[in-house]
Amino acid sequence: MKKLSLFKQISSISVVVAILSGCAATQGTNTSSNSTSMNKTQSGALIGGILGAVIGASTSGGGTKRAVIGGAIGAAVGGGIGYSMDQQAKEVAQELNTNVNNNPNAALDPNSDLIVSNTDKYVKIMLRDSMVFETNSAIPTATAARKISKISDVLRKYPNTIVQVVGFTDNRGSYEYNQKLSNQRAANVGNTIYNSGIQNQIFSKGCSYNKPIAPNNTAQNMGLNRRVEIYLYANQQSIIDACVE
């Protein structure tokens, strides 16, 4: 009987996974912003459903029923989180007069000073240093401060979103100098967001010239690498080491 019970639990989990996987795969190859949004919501449902099913099956008593219920609850919660992050990405992009752009090569366009993208783990707003700071300054310009305040307007609607601000430089000068500069720039952007009165948890860090977008072999490429990235996370488990990942 124990073997049969275990088989039923595994079968239940498999059913949940198969159903959710089928949903997540329906538009997996489409790169439009609407389809990307749908994929993120479905991805959250898939992950939540799997975890819920596993946890439900592992609890004592009524394993099969618990697996199905756990999978359904997990899918609902995961899908809800994914949808919320999708909405934040869209609203931030709208406030900044742009669109969500998930093209991995978008950051290599020297004419793109601001890029909003959306992944399975976070929403990222990339700001070029040229549009945020004066040369050799760590203080956001008045224009940049206005743009940052628009991001704060969206965050005010989502107080549970965790905010991480990360600074990057090119490789001119010492690592220590660039570490200090990237720290200061990230901290000042973070303070601009925080001082707008939001309730979100927010933290910042500098990465010096780690994680360049392009080789630091031309003035244009160096300009691409000097940037501040603002990450929005649904929870602590989603946070990445932005200096590496």
Structural commentary:
- The structure is a single chain.
- The protein has two domains: 2-95, no CATH class; 106-238, OmpA-like domain (60s Ribosomal Protein L30, Chain: A, 2-Layer Sandwich), CATH 3.30.1330.
- With 245 residues, it is of the alpha+beta class.
- The protein has helices at 2-24, 33-58, 63-95, 129-132, 142-155, 175-194, 219-225, and strands at 114-118, 122-128, 162-168, 202-206, 227-233.
- The protein is 52% helix and 13% strand.
- A hairpin with a 3-residue loop joins β1 and β2 (122-128).
Blueprint of the fold:
Blueprint: H1 2-24, H2 33-58, H3 63-95, E1 114-118, E2 122-128, H4 129-132, H5 142-155, E3 162-168, H6 175-194, E4 202-206, H7 219-225, E5 227-233
Parallel strand pairs: 3-4
Antiparallel strand pairs: 1-2, 2-5, 3-5
Domain OmpA-like: 120-236
Signal peptide: 1-24
Keywords: Cell outer membrane, Membrane, Signal
